[in-house]
Task: structure prediction
Amino acid sequence: MSMRILEKIIPDFLRGDNQELDEGRFNFRRLWRLSVFLTAVVSLVPLVFMTLLHYHLAQQYLESESYNHTYRFVRNTWRYVASFLNERKTVLELFANQYSFEELNSPGQLEAILDNMEKRLGGVRDIGVINSSGIQTNYVGPYKLKGVNYSNQEWFKKVLRNNTYISDVFLGFRNVPHMVIACKFDQPDNSFFVFRVTLDLEQINRMLNQLEMAGSTCTSLVNQEGMLQTTCRHHPEILKKMSYSVPEFATESRVIEGKDPEGRPVIIGYRYIPGTPFILMIVEQKGALLRAWHKSRIQLVVFLVGSVTLIMAVILGVATYLVNRIYVADRERVSSLHKVEYSNRLASIGRLAANVAHEVNNPLAIINEKAGLIKDMFTYKDMYSEDKKLIGLVDSIISSVERCGTITKRLLGFARHMEVSIQSINVQEVLEEVLGFLEKEAEYRSIKVSLNVPDDIPEFESDRGKVQQIFLNLVNNAFAAMEDGGSLDITVRREDEDFISTTVTDTGCGIKKADIERIFEPFFSTKTKKGGTGLGLSITCGLIQEIGGKINVQSEVGKGTTFIISLPLKIDKERK
Amino acid sequence: MRLLLVDDEVELVSTLAERLSFRGIDADWVASGEEALKKAETETYDLAVLDVKMPRISGIKLKGMLEAKYPDMKFIFMTGHGSEDDFRTGSSKAYYLVKPINIEALISKINEVLKK
Result:
């Protein structure tokens, strides 16, 4: 089934059996390949180029957009964290400035401040006042830390140095992650004290977690050793080393590329938060950021594949159609040329035959008369009248001359009829004339020829030369198809009022089913290797159409072929 | 009955005349149109058998010339071209025979023509 469809789709010029026609004339396959190639290049190259350019630009734009997005996120978030810490520091300074050292050490006052701070800010675990010797003079909180000496603690020294101190997150005596904000305040008597609060991490954690965007973003604070100060989506444990190395110090927000522990590409935005030991780290999966890009990339690829397929289909269709049209026109041209050549050749042969016949006729007539005279002398004079043998010899000469005469007459008649002329035709006469040419061949090859023309077949009007040629071609074909000893049957019958049909049946090799449809095509020949031009039946078919007839064929391989020719009794005036 | 045979092939026309004489038909022969015209002036002929294709004066032309002078003269044409069918449309007085000629056919045609 699919083979049949394929056979119908594939044009003639691409079929294997027409290869020889391409030589010396247009090479249609090459023409087709060239036109497909050039059209494809001209239309596909700009398309592919533009698509790749678009692909590249879109990728670049979306990549830079994802960098900018991370950058903006870092910039906004670090300000938020910084203001969170500053707020606590400012509140601490406010209380310290509002109360004197003594007041802060008076009973009840510090509890009120802790209470107040907890209400306003939340997350304040304890509060303490440390004198200039490093002794915690007052403390409110869940631990018993009043009187503890901090003078040797590193953080205390940093407060003395910088006036303010914000600690890393650490476990400390209480073994709970927390951080400390401490500020140094000078007294009028040149002494000072340190006011210190401990903050738990719940609030800052919650704040950062809320900022984490949907998907795969990880927002956390790390210290400068790379220890996690807050938890995040991918790092649920605090105070562990983070998976990424500590980024290079910078005073501004930065975005860099890296890889996560699984080796996937990530975009890392960071910011050293000034005045604190913290670095804000925002890690985003590059794949997630570029998801939109991947989607549009697939659309782009689908668009490209679709366009290329459509363009190629159109190019193939148009090129095949056009080349096939040229091919068909060219075949028609060549076929017409061949037909003209064939008719010319036939006419030349006819003229030659007529000349030869005429030239032979005169000496033949002399031989005839001389032999006749010899016979007359034998017959009318007594000398040889009894010699039967001599009379027999002369009779044989005369009968041979008569035979030659029949042949020359037939040749002359045939050649004369090749000129176009509409005349009344007796089909039996024409068929007998045609068969006369093959009489000897039939005899040598023991081919039985039978001709049946019923009496009711009227004479009909047509071009005698064409009718002759049609029958001669068909009878010749039948002879070529048959082995010696075959039989040829020609039967004429009246089809209806307007047509007579002639059936030419041979017992030859037959025609394959696949070939039957093509036998009337020009150049189709099963005798290519035996000198067939492939034009015989095509010309016969053309001649039949010219005189308004029809031809049909029935054949069975190995049994024989029947050609049925219907000819009109009257030829159209137009055809005349 | 006197016959004049005209054909540029001397061998043919002389032999034909001899053969006719065996059959009791008195026939003179000449090998050209000019000779035929001369001969017709000296003798009276009932019938002329003419070759169609001859040099200078063709058989058809000769027939015209003889017919003009001797309206009672009958004619039979001999031709080496084609078959009798080709001459179906000839004039009523003219009959055709295709070479090589069968002598019996010629005699029957002569009789036929003269009867008319």
In short: Chain B touches chain A through 21 residues (CB under 8 Å). The longest strand of chain B covers residues 74-79.
